[in-house]
Structure prediction request, 150 residues.
Amino acid sequence: MTCFETGFAVLLNIETWKNWVPIISLFVAIGALIIAFWQVQVGRNTSASAQAHGIYQQYLALCIAHPELASGEYVANSKNDPEYAKYLWFFSSMLFAFEQVLEAKPNDEKWIAAIKSQLEKHKTHLVKSSTAASNHWHEDLQEIIREMKL
Prediction:
């Protein structure tokens, strides 16, 4: 009899449930929509992070394979130095990898700091490079390059 004394008896009435089902269904649907949207956002972020890490890992593998180029201290011995040609390709590949990282994770301060630290090693070439000066790169990378040249 406690049910009747507290007023919960209304929950035993089928008419009450008939009136409340559409409203409850609406809230359940809205909740499901919010959860689905959140899951899509988490999935996109996770995918972008995995992509950025993969690209940067490839860049690091290139650095391990060619530490003399990765140091940023390579100076051409002559006008037709074949190793300097390799350095130019390494430099372009590095910029391309950084561009892809920034496209995957724009405005991520940790990635921007990592890219700046790597570009700092190559600042001598960065200042004189026509590749770096071209406006073909992602806007965020162009901004970082401009900052590094100062």
Q: What stands out?
A: The chain has a mean pLDDT of 88. DSSP finds eight helices and no strands in the chain.
